[in-house]
Amino acid sequence: MAFHLLQRDRSGGVKLADALSQAMTEVGHCSECRTFTEHDVCNICSNPKRQESGQICVVESPADIAAVEATSILGSLLCFDGALVST
Q: Can you point out the beta strands (E) in 1-87?
């Protein structure tokens, strides 16, 4: 990616660098589920409908939360565990 940006899209590289720099300083972890957010509590955890469901879906990473959310079929709270759970 770096070679492509240097050779063909330097302005895009600058925009990407700025966006990454901003994300590194402004994005933290949700105090409830530990996913990435710009707020103390993420949009999923602050949604009252999610809390009413009484269901929790535990996933390994914030990327998994995004994947589950993209399906739009689960109405439960999502919790980023950060480690695999074996049964």
A: 28-29, 36-37, 56-59, 77-80
